[in-house]
Amino acid sequence: MAAWRERLAGVRGVLLDISGVLYDGGAGGGVPIAGSVEAVARLKRSPLKVRLCTNESQKSRRELVGLLRRLGFSVSEGEVSAPAPAACQILRARGLRPHLLIHEEGFSFQNMNKAFQVLMELENPVLISLGKGRYYKETSGLMLDVGAYMKALEYACGIEAEVVGKPSPEFFKSALQEMGVEAHQAIMIGDDIVCDVGGAQRCGMQALQVRTGKFRPSDEQHPEVQANGYVDNLAEAVDLLLQHMDA
Amino acid sequence: MATRRALKAVLVDLSGTLHVEDAAVPGAQEALKRLRGAPVMIKFVTNTTKESKQDLLKRLKKLEFDISEDEIFTSLTAARNLVEAKQVRPMLLIDDRALPDFKGIQTEDPNAVVIGLAPEHFHYPALNQAFRLLLDGAPLIAIHKARYYKRKDGLALGPGPFVTGLEYATDTKATVVGKPEKTFFLEALRGTGCEPEEAIMIGDDCRDDVGGAQNAGMLGILVKTGKYRAADEEKINPPPYLTCESFPHAVDHILQHLL
């Protein structure tokens, strides 16, 4: 497709979503998506700058990088933008003392109810959500994501959450800054049509959706978001990038 | 207002209208007997997500109300009727005490989700199973969408937040079956041969009982018992057809003016 050259020639930096693009989580940690280990290695050998941009909030950045390395990816903590460190910055800056509804605690009724009661007792309730994804993919199938629980608490308390992580523009901007690349020179590759693709495009980036992870065929006819391209997997995206980028 | 036809049916709310917790509203049993002497059909309609008809009936009998099971129509009945009309096999996210109202309904290999107030079922694995069914196109039927309710230990999340979360995750809308939905009132009259214009509703909840009924084409009488608070009648437009002290007054009005 000649159009690919037009789209990809000026790209200087690549933001990669992790879950559903590099690997699918599941029992025992997960499995790499076919071709992705090699694709990441090829990207990192190329002149393109690369950064990983995830909404992962079920494990720490260190655990996530440890898992990726066990799966064969050569990545380091400093290359990963994740919502928890970003949320910590916000909490410190505003002097907030959070009630933590995070993975160790689990989305049980009791824990949700505790968070609800905390919010209802605050004069100015602040709800910070690490991402607002609808669902994600595990090897066993699609899984409800934090967005559903964020919406539940918003509805119960009549408030609006502050989202840290994708698709928040601040999160993408800080990832771009870390990479030292302007939005118009960057491309996001992800499996979430709304959070990855829509979010990156609103920041002035291009974005590709991979047909792995949580991808569903109906995403290609999404009523609001149209990716700059759809590829079968990360390996195909990297092939196209390396083929069409300016030498 | 459109011309009204002769009154054929009277819908009566239970909690707050016939009784407040474990005490009958004074004079309510005798008033019900007087109403039974008139040529009208009587239905008892209520929003409940955890009390089966049997449970409701037991309580009413104890308070010496003369009521039979087939006169009771609840939000659970409405959900069951919808499940039968759609010919689906629901996953039931409802309180175990409500299960008798779904007796005989196929729930193996589910292709629909019915959700009520069921804290013990609102854990991740169950909600995730519901989520996967919805993503495959199963309809979501909600008994109601209350945000929260009052418990002895403070406020607690109602079913509404969990319905909303599932709606968001799957980009679908739930069908809500309880009061004040128009379909609830129409469903309560189904099979009676009686039109909404021939029915009147008596209840203590201005929006859910009176507003809902009037929105469905019925008349609504607001009683000042149960959850009634001063000036509640100003909450809806058009206002209630009538606001009166209690159920016996409402019955007297019907007997004197509407028959």
UniProtKB/TrEMBL annotation, chain A:
The keyword Lipid metabolism is assigned to this record: no
UniProt keyword annotations, A-Z: Cytoplasm, Hydrolase, Magnesium, Metal-binding, Nucleus
SUPFAM superfamilies named among the record's database cross-references: HAD-like
InterPro entries: HAD-like_sf, HAD-SF_hydro_IIA, HAD_sf, LHPP/HDHD2
Superkingdom of origin organism: Eukaryota
CDD domains: HAD_PPase
The EC number(s) this enzyme carries: 3.6.1.1
Main location: cytoplasm
Family, per entry: Belongs to the HAD-like hydrolase superfamily.
Role, per record: Phosphatase that hydrolyzes imidodiphosphate, 3-phosphohistidine and 6-phospholysine. Has broad substrate specificity and can also hydrolyze inorganic diphosphate, but with lower efficiency.
Name of the protein described by the UniProt record: Phospholysine phosphohistidine inorganic pyrophosphate phosphatase
Organism, scientific name: Trichechus manatus latirostris
Lineage of the organism: Eukaryota, Metazoa, Chordata, Craniata, Vertebrata
Encoding gene per record: LHPP
From TrEMBL, chain B:
Family annotation (Pfam families): Hydrolase_6 (PF13344), Hydrolase_like (PF13242)
Keyword Coiled coil: yes
Matching SUPFAM superfamilies: HAD-like
GO cellular component: cytoplasm
Keywords, alphabetical: Coiled coil, Magnesium, Metal-binding
UniProt-recorded Gene Ontology molecular function terms: metal ion binding; phosphatase activity
CDD domains for the chain: HAD_PPase
InterPro entries found in the cross-reference section: HAD-like_sf, HAD-SF_hydro_IIA, HAD_sf, LHPP/HDHD2
Cofactor(s) this protein cannot do without: Mg(2+)
NCBIfam families: HAD-SF-IIA, HAD-SF-IIA-hyp3
Family: Belongs to the HAD-like hydrolase superfamily.
Protein name, as recorded: Haloacid dehalogenase-like hydrolase domain-containing protein 2
